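User: Working on a comparison across species. This one is Fibrinogen C-terminal domain-containing protein from Dreissena polymorpha. Can you predict its structure so I can line it up against the others?
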Amino acid sequence: MNETRNTLHKESVTLKRLQHRIQSQAVTIDNLNANFDALESIVNNLSRIVDKFEWTMRANLEARPVDAPIPPHLVVPTTQSPIYPRDCDEVYQSGGMRYLGDYYILVKPERSTTPFRALCKIMEGAGWTVIQRRHDGRENFTRDWEDYKHGFGDLQAEFWLGNENIHLLTTQDDYELRIVMEDWDGRRHHAEYDRFRVSGERSNFKLHVSGYHGNAGDSLTSFYHSHSGMEFSTYDRDNDRRLYDNCAEHYGSGWWYNDCYESHLNGKFYPHGSHDNFFIRDGILWNKIHQYASLKSTEMMIRPAPKAKLPNEI
Ligand SMILES: [Ca+2]
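Assistant: Here's the predicted structure for Fibrinogen C-terminal domain-containing protein from Dreissena polymorpha:
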C-alpha cells in the first residue's frame, strides 16, 4: 500500500512538473508569437522602405539625362574608328533611346570631320536634335560671330549648338524645325516648320525655312520681316536688311535679322518677362505671342522631315 502511495506521489510530482513545463512553454510560445508579430512588422516596414527606394531610384533614373547606348549595328569593331550616328533620330529609328526624356550623345553629320555632343529629345515617334535652349538666363547670348559659329553654353542648361553644326545637320537631308516656347503666364506655344535648312559660312549661314503650322503663330516666315532668306548677323557681323544700323548690335543677340525681326529667340533673358526699356525690345521674343514680353523658355529642335510616301506605299 505504501509502495502504491509512493508511486502515486511520484506520478503526481511528475505531473505537476509537466504541468509547470507546459505552462512555461505556453509563455514561451506567447513570447515567440509576440516576437514573430514584431518581426513581421519590421519586415513589412523594410519592404515598404525598399519599395519606396526602388521607386525613387527608378524615377531618378528616368528623369536623369543618360548617355544613350549606340545600337549594335552602328558600332564597328574596335580596330576601326567608331561610326557615329548622323543625328538623334538615327539612333531612335535604329531602336535606341526608348524612354521619353533627354539623352546626350555624340553625333557626326555626314560631312562633319569630328563628332560633337548633342542633346536629344524623344517625342512623337522621333529623336529630335536640340539646337537651342533657354530657360534660366544663366548663359550670355550676346556673343560674336565665332561663338555663334562654333556654339556655346551647356547642353544640360542653356546653349546654342553652333551655326556650323546646324548647317551640317540640316544639309544632309530635308529637316523640319520645332520650336517649343513658354511664356511667364505658364502658357505653352509651339511652332513647326516642315522645312528648315541653314547654309554654310560662305553664305553667312543663310536661313531657309517654310511650311508653318502650330499654335504660336508664325513669327519666322510671316510676310512682315520674314527671316527666311536672311543671313545670320552678330554684333561684329552686319548681314541684315537694315541699311543704317546693325540689328545684332542694337539688340545684342545673334539671329537671322531682317529689318530687324519678328522673332528673337536668342535675346536677353528677363525674369518674369519684363523689359528694362519698353522701346528696346531685346528680350526673348516671338511677336505673335507677345511683342513686348520676353519668353520664359524656348527650345528649338530638328529632325529629318518624314519622307513623302510613294503612291504604292499608301
Ligand atoms: Ca545693317
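For your comparison, note: Residues 55-64 have pLDDT under 50 and may be disordered.

User: Helpful, thanks.
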